[in-house]
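Collaboration report, partner site 2.

Our partner group contributed sequences for two proteins of shared interest, and the home lab folded both. The records are reproduced in the order in which they were received, starting with the first partner submission.
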Amino acid sequence: MTSWIDTHCHLDAPEFEPDRDAVRSRAAAAGVRMCLLPAVHAANFDTVRELAHRHGDCYALGIHPMCTPQAVTADLQLLDEALARQRDDPRLVAVGEIGLDYFVPGLDEQKQELFLREQIAIARRHGLPVILHVRRSADRLLKHLRSTGLQGIAHAFNGSRQQAAEFVQLGFKLGFGGAVTFERALQLRRLAAGLPLGAIVLETDAPDIPPHWLYRTAQQRAAGEAQGRNEPAQLPRIAQVVAQLRDLPLDELAAATTRNASQALPRLAAIIGAQ
């Protein structure tokens, strides 16, 4: 069976509370050998670590830009301390999910940037790559990242070709997930088809960003049709879309994206090698 790495999956989300172990079992049965579980705030640092160890996955610790309204500066010290405490845990592979979100209204941009700057400094201090949240903020994020020497993954990338090239030049891989399955996502599909193969990793962002076969329009939701919950078992089908866009054999895409994830996250390579 072809095997896959889901480089972004929020398995700790409350949507998975009723059947979390079954969700991960379905993913394994579909060929998803590894999920990366990023934290989003200090309160779920322990949860993602415990889940990663329970299922043989890996995890990242960080404070999400959408969680900055509730975050306090003391949370940055908690992050630093948690990374120091878990420094010898091979399943801790990155600092994340961190970044900037200029799409959601009402978020304090200055506070977001403060938390981003501090978490970049923490990642450098601990020698870890970063998992980036990039939503309408690519240019600003690039400004913060230049000269840091950091690498990692720009999750759910949806910027321009020029922005993509600069992230790649800095040493980042770009995450593609359910959004690429929509035919109307023309720019995103052009990126998935045209970027160097060495620049791409795959993700679900489960339970969010459902692929088109799970998506419900606002009209359908108003009529009572439930939104389909995304889960990591969807990754192979998402990968089929990317493979078709690139006219690439599925096994070749699996091998390349696994290799790319390992390059972005060196500790992940060690886990895969041990498996």
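Second partner submission, folded after the first:
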Amino acid sequence: MKGYAMLTIGQTGWIEKDIPKCGPADAICKPIALAPCTSDIHTVWSGALGDRHDMILGHEAVGEVVEVGSEVKDFKVGDRVLVSAITPDWNSIAAQEGYPMHSGGMLSGWKFSNFKDGVFAEYFHVNDADGNLAKLPEGMDLGAAAMLADMIPTGFHGVELADVQFGDNVAVIGIGPVGLMSVAAAAIRGAAEIFAVGSRKNCADLAREYGATDIINYREGDIVEQIMAKTGGKGVDKVIIAGGDNDTFAQAIEILKPGGIIGNVNYLGEGDFVKIPRVQWGCGMSHKTVRGGLMPGGRVRSEKLARLIMTGRIHPEKMITHTFQGLEGVEPALMLMKDKPRDLIKPLVLL
């Protein structure tokens, strides 16, 4: 089969590989919709996970089942399925302890384009099919369905980590696709003021549509000064970090009230340390909490989030700004994510 791969750090290309083998609890799928992710960019061009050789990229897919293992009960050949980017081993100790995303070791629930070949190929393998696949709802837009792999569950997990409650004032730093879904999730959770931090007009416009009350443009001044001015110097109850870099944590600490929570779902692809400002952290005694997490993955989560789309509570398809046809579209779509033109939010590849 053909796949688009990381050849080594800084290099990508098309390669040929054997079709993956199906274990008794697994499934083999062919993609019907694919989306590249900024994580793919960090993996290849920053070497964030270390060197990988001839590893097929991609972890965002909607698929059609072409083979199932003998122990798979709920899926059959021909089923069109949602595929989570995080595919834990659901019978693991970590899953039983409530952290399925770390089954097999830290971040090991993230298998596609990390420990095994990803989805940018003619066929891909899904472990624990009954636990990690979900049926594609009848009539669901394929762009929206592709966002259920990663963008929606990751953005929503940022809001879960920050424990957003009714009436909270919330800042979302970074309003790319994950941050936009954090804005939508914060609104659903009942946040009052939602400060969306970003500079692109199309992202800002969509953030307002998803529930942001204020846009904080970092090109127009320091975001700490802007948010503190809008909150009368009090700061916000919760912060979701969905973009930025290692230094973003310092800004998040500064705008957070004592007793507040930061939920980070940003993939830090470079650097060795995250610095927390001592004084703004109350010399270590401010009760300002930082939580960072990989989204859990799994069938139940996909099914629940799919209901929000089918009932019109969220509209992730509006994030799709560029569409390509055929597997060959993966390469230009990925390069868009690398180059980030001003009109880009999220590209989609239809097969």
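Feedback sent to the partner group on the second submission included the following. The chain has two domains: 2-150+295-350, 155-292. The mean pLDDT is 97.
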